[in-house]
Specification:
It comes from Trichococcus shcherbakoviae subsp. psychrophilus. This protein has 218 residues and is α/β, with parallel strands linked by helices. Helix content is 42%, strand content 12%. Helix 5 links the parallel strand 2 (105-109) and strand 3.
Length: 218
C-alpha cells in the first residue's frame, strides 16, 4: 500500500544542478583550483557542509568550511537570480497528480530549509506538500537513510510503503538504506549517475502517477 511519496528537490523538482556546479567551480577558481565539471557530480545529494569540508581538505583551501559554504551560496544565488529558477520538465504535473490522488507528499532535500521554501514558493507548489526536511535537520546526510526515515516518520508512513524520487547516487543509496522504493530520475542533460540501487529508472515524469507508484510497493 502506497503511504507517501518523498521528493528530493535539486535536480528532481528544480533544475538547480547547473547552478551548483558552476558556483562550486567558480569559488574553487578563486583559490587557484581548476576542476573539470564532472568532478562535482560526486557531491550531488550531499550537504553543503560535507562537500566543502571534503574539498577544503582535498585542496587545502585556506578558509573555514562555514565561509566556503556562504561564499558558494552567494555565487549560486546570484546566478539563479540572473537566470531564474526552472522546474524539471513534467515534474509539477506529476506532483499535482499525486496530490489530487490523495497521496501525502514531502520534500527531503540536503539543501538548507530556507532554500527549500524559497524554491517551492517560487514555483507555487508549496500547497502540495505536507512536510519539508533538510539535511541540516538530521544527524547524517545522504547516503545515510536519516532524511527519508525522518520524512516517513513525520508523515506517519512505513518507509517500506514510501516511494522516493531521486536523481543522484547518494540520494538513491539513502532511499535504499531507508527501505523505501525509489524512482531514479536520469537527467539526459548530464552524464549518468550510478542509479543502480533504484527500484526503477526513468528519464521523464510525463507518464508517472499515483497508480504507477502503487505498483512499486504492492
Amino acid at each position: 500500500m502506497l503511504e507517501a511519496v518523498l521528493f528530493d528537490m535539486d535536480g528532481v523538482i528544480i533544475d538547480t544542478e547547473p547552478f551548483f556546479l558552476r558556483s562550486e567551480s567558480m569559488l574553487l577558481k578563486e583559490f587557484g583550483v581548476d576542476t573539470e565539471l564532472e568532478y562535482h557530480f560526486r557531491y550531488q545529494g550531499t550537504t553543503h557542509e560535507y562537500m566543502w569540508e571534503t574539498m577544503k581538505n582535498e585542496f587545502d583551501l585556506d578558509a573555514p568550511v562555514g565561509e566556503l559554504v556562504e561564499r558558494a551560496n552567494v555565487i549560486r544565488n546570484r546566478l539563479m537570480e540572473e537566470d531564474g529558477l526552472q522546474p524539471i520538465p513534467g515534474v509539477i504535473s506529476f506532483i499535482a497528480r499525486l496530490h489530487e490522488a490523495g497521496v501525502p507528499l514531502a520534500i527531503a532535500s540536503s539543501s538548507p530549509l530556507t532554500d527549500i521554501h524559497k524554491a517551492v514558493k517560487a514555483l507555487d507548489i508549496e500547497k502540495y506538500f505536507s512536510y519539508f526536511v533538510s539535511g541540516e535537520s538530521v544527524a547524517h546526510s545522504k547516503p545515510a537513510p536519516d532524511i527519508f526515515l525522518n520524512a516517513a516518520e513525520n508523515l506517519k508512513a512505513n518507509p517500506e510503503n514510501c516511494v522516493v524520487i531521486e536523481d543522484s547516487k547518494n540520494g538513491v543509496a539513502s532511499a535504499h538504506a531507508a527501505g523505501c522504493k525509489c524512482i531514479g530520475f536520469r537527467n539526459l542533460e548530464f552524464p549518468p549517475q550510478d542509479l543502480s540501487l533504484a527500484t526503477v529508472i526513468v528519464t521523464d515524469f510525463s507518464d508517472l502517477d499515483a497508480d504507477y507508484c502503487r505498483t512499486l510497493v504492492d
